[in-house]
Design brief:
Chain A is α+β, with helices and mostly antiparallel strands. Helix content of chain A is 31%, strand content 19%. Chain A starts with 8 loop residues before the first strand and ends with a strand. The termini of chain B are close together. In chain B, 41% of the residues lie in helices and 26% in strands. A five-stranded antiparallel β-sheet of chain B has the order 2-1-5-4-3. Classes of the chains: A alpha+beta, B alpha+beta. Chain A: It comes from Dictyostelium discoideum (Social amoeba).
Chain lengths: 281, 133
């Protein structure tokens, strides 16, 4: 079987009376048109048409095999360029079933293709590569650990940093929601909306002791611990510094809603984290 | 001609920003308006924990001056002192200013709960003010 990277395939499609040549290298297409008005567009250049609003890999213009938890293909058909040709991006040599232009090598009726070009371009949100963020996060913690005199000081720095981020981020997320006079509503918001924005999943478990003002949040697959590896012979497998920032995020979010709290956490098994929020009376 | 005074009040009831539309208000009158706004803060605090809405409508009156309020999720209070009652315009004004405030808040160089000194923010608020009032 030949290596897909060594043999780039060139397909020609007739789009609206213009011939478009498409180079597909390793399943990632960069559209190239021989018409004068159409610019050469790489997958990364298409990000100019989109807006950022989340912290995850889904729909990122970078191909899927560079991503974590990415399972949707980036469908750019129907985007009208100055030359009039629709751009299309293929990912991992799989053509999306929703793709109006079909497989690149096939001819389709001109009328149908022109209808496709007249459709308005729906912008997909440009998101951050999860792997890039995780590498950055690991480096950030490493830098803070090295610049701190002891572990306690490092944890304080991370907590403060998380507090600032959580405080500002939750203000942005609650733009379209109502105020939270009730404590439970604020915690539910953190479990659903806040957690989904940061980790692309909701909290797996929420236990409450409403009278005592204690809430226990369980994340059974904590994303920022999943890709850490340990030396099997090492006796110390403490990775609490990788979770301290998240504890700060929760504390900052709760503080923004007007509830002062203490957030502690416990790491169970490999990547299960239990966060305990205790409201200060 | 009716005047509008817009204030942003921080979490500890500290003033973050103040502007008047149109900018023809006398010094003497400015102090009176600040006094009225200060007096209405307790009423805002009461309303916040009772209501789910960010826009609290008209919360207080002093002679001809009416005070409308809007509270963000982070309990930053927007107050507008006005004489004319135009709820739609006031609500839209608050929503647009809230959007601007969020952009300021997400700026890493802005320190939370400190006075807003950005000239760009000031210019945009003026623009929104002239649009609605």
């Amino acid at each position: 079987m030949s290596d897909p990277l060594s043999n780039p395939t060139i397909n020609t499609t007739n789009v609206g009376g213009q011939t478009t040549t498409q180079n597909t290298i390793g399943g990632v297409g960069g559209g190239k048109s021989n018409s004068v008005g159409t610019p050469y567009t790489t997958p990364l250049q298409t990000s100019a048409y989109t807006t950022a609003n989340s912290l995850s890999a889904t729909n990122s213009p970078i191909p899927n095999h560079h991503m974590i938890n990415s399972n949707s293909s980036n469908n750019l058909s129907g985007m009208v360029t100055p030359g009039g040709a629709g751009l299309q991006q293929q990912q991992s040599s799989i053509t999306s079933s929703t793709n109006n232009l079909g497989l690149l090598g096939q001819q389709q009726p001109q009328q149908q293709q022109q209808q496709t070009l007249l459709q308005p371009f729906t912008t997909q949100s440009r998101l951050i590569s999860a792997s890039c963020f995780e590498f950055f996060y690991i480096e950030m913690i490493d830098c803070i650990m090295k610049s701190s005199s002891d572990k306690q000081q490092a944890h304080k720095k991370l907590d403060k940093l998380g507090f600032k981020v959580g405080h500002r981020l939750v203000e942005r997320l609650s733009l379209d929601t109502a105020l939270f006079p009730e404590l439970l509503d604020a915690v539910k918001f953190i479990c659903k909306v806040f957690w989904t924005t940061v980790f692309k999943k909701t909290i797996d478990g929420l236990k409450t002791n409403h009278k005592g003002g204690v809430f226990v949040l369980t994340d059974s697959k904590f994303q920022w611990l999943q890709h850490l590896s340990f030396d099997s012979s090492a006796s110390n497998k403490d990775c609490s510094e990788y979770v301290q920032f998240t504890a700060g995020l929760i504390k900052g979010a709760m503080s923004n809603f007007g509830f002062k709290c203490i957030v502690t956490f416990d790491i169970q098994q490999v990547s299960t984290c239990v966060f305990t929020i205790k409201i200060e009376s | 001609m009716s005047t509008f005074t817009f204030l942003i009040i921080g979490k500890n009831d500290n003033p973050l920003y103040e502007i008047e539309f149109p900018i023809t208000v006398q010094k003497k009158e400015t102090y009176v308006l600040q006094y009225i706004a200060h007096g209405s803060l307790d009423i805002v605090e009461e309303h916040v924990w009772k209501s789910n809405n960010m826009y609290l409508k008209i919360i207080d009156k002093f002679n001809k001056v009416q005070i409308s309020s809007f509270v963000t999720a982070g309990h930053i209070k927007f107050l507008l002192l006005h004489e004319k009652k135009d709820e739609d315009a006031i609500k839209n004004f608050f929503v647009e200013v809230h959007d601007l405030y969020l952009k300021i808040l997400l700026n890493p160089f802005y320190e939370y709960n400190k006075p807003i000194t950005s000239t760009a923010f000031d210019a945009k608020v003026r623009k929104i003010g002239t649009k609605y009032f």
